[in-house]
Each structure stands twice: as C-alpha cells, then as structure tokens.
Amino acid sequence: MFSLTDRIRLETEVEETDTQFGFTWLHVDGEYRIRSPDDEFKQVPKVIVDTLREQATSVSVEELIAETETQDADAADTLREMYEGGFIRDDAPVERVRSPEDIRIWHRALGVGVLLCVTGALWVETLSRLARPFVDSPFQYLLEAIPVLIPVVLCSVVVHELGHYYTARKQGLDPSFGVSVINGVIPAVVTKTHGGWSLPRNRRMWNTLAGPAYGLVWTLGLFLVYYTLAPHPGVAVAGLLCFNLQFMALNPLFHGDGYLLMTDLLGEQNVRTRGIRHLKQRRPTWLAAYAAASYGFVVVGFLVDAAIGYVVGKWAGSAFVLALSGSLYLESHYGAVGRLRGLLSPSGG
Q1: Could you tell me which residue, 341 or 31, shows the higher pLDDT?
Q2: CA 281 vs CA 260, 297, 321: distances in Å
Q3: 198: which residues sit within 8 A by CB, 6+ positions away?
Q4: What is the DSSP code (8-state) at residue 183?
Q5: Containing H/E element for 123?
Q6: pLDDT tens across 162-200, in order?
Q7: Where are the domains of the chain?
Q8: What is the pLDDT of residue 268?
C-alpha cells in the first residue's frame, strides 16, 4: 500500500565480531562495494571482499597487506588505500548492508516525460507571447517581472531539492543539503544522498529523477496560474526560467541529475573525470567526446547569456554577464575570494 510517511529500513547484518579488522560491504546490481564510516563507497572485485571476510579473524591489516604484496602489488595497493581511507578499520566487526528490492522505474520515467512535454509546450507558447513586449522594452519588462520572479524561482529550487530529499528519506537514506559547483563553473544548491550506492539501480534513478519531477509539477502550476488567474509578466518569466532549470537539470551534459541518470543507465562511473583524463591524453574515446561536449555546452550557454545581456543592456549587459561568469570560474577553480581576502588582510594572509 502506498504511504507518504513509511520509510524503508536499510538493514545491516553483523557477520563477525571476533576480528582483528572489520569493514562494511554490500552486493548490489552484481557489484561489490565497501563503505566507509562517512558513507563513501568503493567498488571492488568480489575476490577482495571474499579475502577480507576470510582473513578478518586471523591476521591484522598490516600483515594481510604485506602478504598480498608478495603475490599481487596492485591488490596490496588497493588494500592499503582502503585502510588509509577508513574503509577497513582495526578492531571493527565485519558487516553487510542488505539492499532493498528494486522497483519499477518505467512508469515514473513516463510520467516525468509527459510533464516535460506538457510544460515544454506551455514554455513555447508563453515565450511567443512575451517575445514582442520584451524586445520592445526589455529593461522595463524585467523591472515589472523581478519582484515576482525572484521569490518564485527561489521556491522552484527549494521544491526541486525537496523532491530529492523526500524521496531519499523514503528510501531509507539520510540526505542533507549542500552547495556544489556544476561543471566546475556553475554554483548550485544540491541534495547529498548519503549512502545512495546501497540502493539498487532503479531506486537510485528514482532518487535522481524525483527532483526534476517535483520541479516540473511546480512549473506546470505556474503556467496554469499565468493562463487562468494572474497574467503577470513576473509569473510568465518565472515559468520560463523554472522550466529552464528543470531542463538543465535533466541535461546529461551538465554534471547534475541528467548526468547521474546517464551513468546509472549506462552502468558507468566517473564518466566526466575519466573523459577529462582521456582528453588530456588525446585518446579518441566516447568519454573524451562527452567531456568536450560538456564543456562546450557551458561555453555556448555563456554566449547565449551574453546575447540576452546585450538585448537588455547593450554592451554593458553583455559585459556584466561575462564578468559574473568569469568571477564564478575563478572562485570555483582558484578560490579567488579567499586569495583576495588574504591579500587585503592586515597580516597579508
């Protein structure tokens, strides 16, 4: 029976307590992972999990690493890395996380697809209505729209993240809110679903898809309000921007929800990181093509923003957009604000 309040419980089974070292492992979607106390997950071959389970009661971690190094240096390096990272811990029990059964995802994805099509059609209709008055007097139009636009768009961000948060809680996870930088450039509020790898694929995908689903419902509501109750320019522009936010979130070229859906669907991990590495190595792989397209899309987006800035404020508007974009890039990559604060402080840093 469907419930808005019931939560799945992620059960942890203690396999062995009389150990010299311990760890927490799980087997989901045919893959083995070991979990750290900070809810970080490391994918490992089955042979490593089997070896750790067999040896946990008889030897110390240092002895196991030394013994393994005489046979397989790479495996020894993996064990050493997990020990230093807290995945393997002295005097801890051996535990296994029992993953819940998977769910069907197709009808949820279909529902989000229908929402996307309906709100997309309304986006096109609304944009065609606003095009002429905006072009005729863009600055005046934005002045009228902003008092309504800003709070409504901020609410859209909250609704989107609550979709992730609520769904993750229902799945038995312990989510939290934070700030991240998408594609190394774009700051964003994100919901961190700690322990997400303990869930099977379709449950993870639904956690990811729930944010855009909630956001699209909010956007549909805005368009309905605009067409039936309040034909205010602020409501119309807010509907356009809220749709853009959900569409960008679902775009796999951004390191956001669409990216996570793509990696789960393809069964690949660290696609962007590996793609950047392949680009630097000049390897002609699809991962390198993806990384190039991802950064290329951001550049195109900034050019479009600069063009909109020009429509609103001529060259001053374009300069403002590019200056803001450059500031975000410098801060995300080099911590420009912190460096500047250090230079300006009396002690010089």
Answers
A1: 31
A2: 24, 21, 33
A3: 10, 26, 28, 35, 41, 97, 99, 173
A4: T
A5: helix 106-136
A6: 999 999 888 888 887 766 655 454 556 677 777 788 899
A7: 11-98, 106-340
A8: 82
